[in-house]
TrEMBL record:
This is Allantoinase. Pfam families: Amidohydro_1. Keywords: Hydrolase. Residues 56-194, 347-424 form the Amidohydrolase-related domain. Its cofactor is Zn(2+). Its EC number is 3.5.2.5. Coiled coil: none annotated. InterPro entries: Amidohydro-rel, Metal-dep_hydrolase_composite, Metal_Hydrolase, Metallo-dep_Hydrolases_sf. GO terms for molecular function: allantoinase activity.
Length: 469
């Protein structure tokens, strides 16, 4: 007689808002799917059984804002995400080729989706790309295995007209579009955010990291936060996430004596430094600018002489983090609700991946401990809702027959303990053991994903929560 189940997860606190569960039960997995959930399933029927007493078992964490490309995040992003229990992530900048290459070489069994940056001088000619140019770029992006566009306005702005045009074109094609607010008119702040909401003109749009427009750079930070909340309430076409870490992440690359990114300029000014290459150097030595440094198979934050030497050795082309997110907006944005009872900000993301701030479990569980979120609400924001936004019908819930994408959390230590993707363990007790990668793409990108040796997960965004309100 053969085993009934491949894996049995015993005695965990199973939490799933979709099936309205919060109870101690066993979860049986066979053929990569969830086949049974109830207490008292026999370990003898399973090839492998884990006793998860004292742990919480939830649908796999979906981080709707991560970075794992050579341009941003780097090769260790997958491993760093798996270590903290993330099973699915959306890379929020591309380039798509690089995201797929890294998934293929450094993948640890996770699901990854990717959108392509719309960046003057890189993917578009200048700051005012026309309809034809944007359509061609979108076509290429989908064929390469991407889901749509990321507009990097805050860092590398377009004209407001081109920004609106890009959002419109993506919507016509029912692809995905995310926006880091900012244009040639407005910066990466609350004014830029309010402009972005206008530029969407009722189209579906993912507004990235809402907390980053509420840092108090125009008005007091909580005033900005309430303005952002009011705008999101009024515009149900906008999907959003906010993150919990105090740290941001931006480019440290300089050319002609100044940092290229306008966000980096602002962060330097905030810390009392000049927005020049010399100012950035001083900020690194003073500890205000923390260089993202690859070391020992992960990315760490570094300051002082070591950081300065690393930054110079890379010709300034590194990521840099500043502690610019005040706590009050982060807390308010994580918990704010609409009158309907739904969250104003759909998801808790990280803007992490290879940028070391993957704190969904660590800091999110602090919100649960504070009783600012219930466990079910927490799971809603970090798994159910983001899975639906990406059109992943078989993920983000524990319905029988769903994909066995599972995250196990140690509630006491506020850490991820174990995670599985399609019924395969990819992380156990912090050790990452998964291999390869699954890429969430449209039918148009299936061949490109396979050509990279990766496994396609095909979604229809027209039928996702990105478009369905
Ligand atoms: Zn980002």
């Amino acid at each position: 007689m053969s085993y009934h189940y491949d894996i049995l997860l015993k005695n965990g606190l199973v939490v799933d808002p979709v099936t309205n569960r919060e109870e101690i039960a066993d979860i049986a997995i066979a053929g990569g799917k969830i086949v049974e959930i109830m207490p008292g399933l026999s370990a003898e029927k399973a090839q492998e059984a884990f006793d998860l007493k004292g742990h919480m078992v939830m649908p796999g964490i979906v981080d709707l804002h991560a970075h794992a490309s050579a341009w941003l995040g780097g090769r260790f992003g997958h491993k760093m995400m798996a270590q903290v229990g993330v099973t699915t992530a959306l890379d929020m900048s591309g380039p798509i080729d690089s995201v797929l290459d890294i998934a293929s070489e450094y993948g640890v069994g996770m699901n990854i989706a990717c959108i392509q940056y719309v960046r003057p001088g890189h993917t578009v000619r200048d700051t005012n790309p026309g309809e034809k140019e944007l359509e061609t770029l979108l076509e290429q992006c989908l064929t390469q295995g991407g889901l749509g566009f990321k507009m990097l306005g805050g860092h590398y702005p377009l004209t407001p007209e081109a920004t609106a045009r890009a959002i419109e074109i993506v919507n016509k094609n029912k692809a995905y579009v995310a926006f880091h607010a900012g244009s040639l008119n407005k910066g990466s702040n609350i004014e830029g955010f309010l402009e972005a909401v206008e530029l969407a003109q009722g189209n579906s749009l993912h507004m990235a990291h809402i907390n980053s427009y509420c840092r108090g750079s125009v008005r007091p930070c909580l005033v900005e936060t309430e303005e952002a909340i009011a705008a999101l309430e009024k515009n149900p076409n906008i999907r959003s996430e906010a993150y919990l870490s105090p740290m941001n992440g931006t480019s440290a690359k300089c050319s002609g004596g100044t940092p290229e990114s306008l966000v980096t300029h602002k962060c330097l000014n905030t810390g009392g430094f000049e927005a020049t290459e010399a100012g950035l150097e001083a900020a690194i030595l003073a500890g205000w600018a923390q260089i993202n440094l690859e070391k020992g198979g992960e990315v760490v934050l570094a300051i002082g002489q070591e950081a300065l030497e690393y930054w110079r050795s890379k010709g300034t082309e590194t990521t840099v983090s500043f502690s610019v997110n005040p706590p009050e907006p982060r807390l308010r944005l994580a918990v704010a609700k609409r009158q309907s009872g739904e969250f104003v900000v759909d998801c808790i993301g990280t803007d992490g991946g290879g940028i070391p701030r993957n704190v969904i479990a660590e800091m999110g569980l602090s919100l649960v401990r504070l009783q600012a979120l219930t466990l079910k609400e927490f799971v809603q924001k970090i798994s159910c809702t983001p899975a639906r936004i990406l059109g992943l019908k078989n993920k983000g819930h524990f319905t029988l027959g769903a994909d066995a994408d599972i995250t196990v959390l140690d509630l006491e230590r506020q850490r991820a303990y174990m995670s599985l993707v399609n019924g395969k363990v990819i992380m156990y007790k912090g050790y990452v053991c998964g291999k390869g990668g699954n890429v969430i793409a449209t039918a148009q990108g299936e061949a490109a994903v396979r050509a990279k040796g990766l496994n396609p997960v095909i979604v229809d965004l027209a039928d996702s929560k990105f478009y369905q309100r």
